[in-house]
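Q: Two folds, back to back.
A: First:
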Amino acid sequence: MSSREGEPGQQPAWTPRSRLGLLVMQGKVSSLHQIFSEGMRIQEPEIVKTLLPDLESEVVGVRVVQKQTDAGELTRFSAVVAVGNRNGWFGVGDAKGPQMRIAIEKATNQAMLNIIPVNQGCGSWECRCGQRHSTPFKVEGKCGSVRVVIIPGPRGLGLVAGETAKRLLALAGIRDAWTRTFGSTSTVTSIAYAVYDALLKLHVLVRR
């Protein structure tokens, strides 16, 4: 019996649609660090899957979205997914779909396209160990009315944060930090993007 696409263990063959994808398939680009250092744009999630085989994904939240149409009430699902390898790479994506599984898959692919390097360090004045266990300095991220402040912590502190922020920071590879959250903290989508915004600013500031 022939297998159907999407069954467990069955992965459709990847045919690159971009120049970068072709370079990755040919082995001429072998790391995400090379992609970012050369300023190339990731347009295919398969690029990230290939270069980060240990990548994990986590569903941050799923909600039902209903819309009134001429044919009646249309129900769709909206999903927010985070991806990371727990060692310096992190991304967040959101998408809608007619089924929960489809929405999650689309959001996961979007998170891969949004992946960024997470600059780790030891910015805690209490520690100064020089290891990559926290952030190199305090940074703040925003999304809508939500603000998330990430403060470097000493080794062994762990993540002092709300449940959503803690899961996301761990996925990004941050092991020790204090956080402060302001605004509508019950909105997991805004928290996820505020954390992403903070880590993106960290990346931009370190590059300067």
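A: Second:
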Amino acid sequence: MKKFFYNKILLLFIAAGLTASLVIAGQRHAVEIHNNQVDMVMDFDSIKNLAEREGLDFQEILYKFKDAGIYFIWVG
């Protein structure tokens, strides 16, 4: 019966890859911990169409979005 041996070079590459992936995972975790903000964007025309479909005043729907935590920035 033939005895099976692991190739030491391949085991070294596997260990190096595992080490590199753990380092990268640790760095990503450190970055993601501080990333706790979500920015939401809506197109002006989409908000206007939503107000028309729901039968609400445009100003009223803007206030509802603001109360929900969505802020509007004019870009142009």
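Q: And?
A: The chain has a mean pLDDT of 87.
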